[in-house]
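Data card: per-record layout.
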Amino acid sequence: MSEEILKALTQLFAIITKQDGGVSENERQFVIDFFQQELEKSAIEGYLQLYDNISGYSEQKIPHVDDKSHKLTSVKDSIKNAGNL
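The structure for this 85-residue chain is written out next.
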């Protein structure tokens, strides 16, 4: 898979997983599993760091729990932020 496609998928995963207010451990583990299937071990950390930065995972203070009281991030804002990378 090309680097451009992998970066685009990483951005898409991040946009989708942060839509409900944050990234859960299950969502992040899904992304890690995907990377382990598609990438060499040496490349996984770089793509995971990109995912964490875009999704805001590295900035989360507490693990995400499904809670409808959080304001959802709009897809438009997510795409705008991903375009700035």
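Known properties of this structure: The CA atoms of residues 1 and 41 lie 15 Å apart. The first helix runs from residue 3 to 17.

See the next section for split statistics.
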